[in-house]
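Re: beginner question about structure tokens

> Can someone show what the tokenized structure looks like for a real chain? I only ever see the sequence side.

Sure, here's an example I had lying around. Input first:
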Amino acid sequence: MSLNPFGNSRLLRGARRTLTGLHPALESLLAAVIGLLIGALLMYIWGFDPWKAYWALLQGAYGGSYEWASTLSRATPLILTALTFSVCVRAGMFNIGAEGQMLVGAMAAICVTYFAMPSGIHLLIGLVFAAAAGAAWSIVPALLKITRGVSEVISTIMFNWIGRWLALYLAIYVIVDPQRAEKTLTVPVTARFPILVRGTDFSYAFFLSLFVALVLYFILWHTTMGYEVRAAGLNPTAARYGGIRNKRTMIVSFLLGGAAAGLAGAAIVMGMPPSYAAFGGGAFPNLTNIGFDGMAVAMVGRNHPIGIIAAAVLFGGLNAGGRVMQFYGSNPVPLEMVRIVMGAIVLAMSVPELIRLFPAIRKQGQSLMRLLRKKGASSEEGST
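And the corresponding structure tokens:
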């Protein structure tokens, strides 16, 4: 009789424990309603009409083809950066480095301007460059985790800053537009995604994000490698007992996540006009915070590729419709209140997944504290 260390785990078969006992989709819907009510209460207290504001939000996000195009365009990179975070969470780790991996991928995609190729092939080469750059940028934190036990939370945050300044260096000194010093080279037409809705920035890059989400779903839930990744995340000890090599699952999850983040950078510079990276004040306005927003999207989507698609469309709608709230009616909602309302909705929808992840977060904190104590003890011994 063979031993199965996982038994009949309902989690590995796809069932999910939830805070309320409801189906995850129903629980997310309930959390969204609570978030909307909290946002309405805040607007009412400060003298704004919440129902008119929410109507403006819906109209600005989903009121027509132009509005849908704006929503889906903003959802495109969020799907990919959310997948970066979620695939590592499934492996029991926290990859906070999507921002840096996305920036490096965007710079790699812009480098295709140095090559003259036919349409299609040029686009494909740019995507390969971006995915490879994002994966390469993610592999160092993974190796530090495996070989030295360095917390991936700390290392990926540090690599965000390294990636940011590296991207700025490349943008200023290597791939800068010789005619305009405030931006990079413009990606040629042959390497861009075609626009789907005329007059908008909604392109075929959206289908790239859907394709990557579906591929990762298939890998995680329908392949042996995906089973190993999820098993290692749920119970590393049982996974080792069952013959699963946890170090390999770490490498695989970081590579998959880094490639998705790199493609997010490519989706922005190759799929959203003006097809370059503008910079100023030490940042890229059209590439900022997409990686961090992706973490919130992953939480709302329950770290599931299909849920992430729906959550990203919600986030895209909040971003697109939030602008309309500022100009709607005789008493429009100011930008600061719009952001507070959006934050309340996102936080309410993230709470169930955050609570589910609390044991893993606590474990990461304990590992970090042990590492810091060990470093402190070694430095005291060296000083004596």
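Each token stands for a local structural state, so reading them left to right follows the chain. The mean pLDDT is 86.
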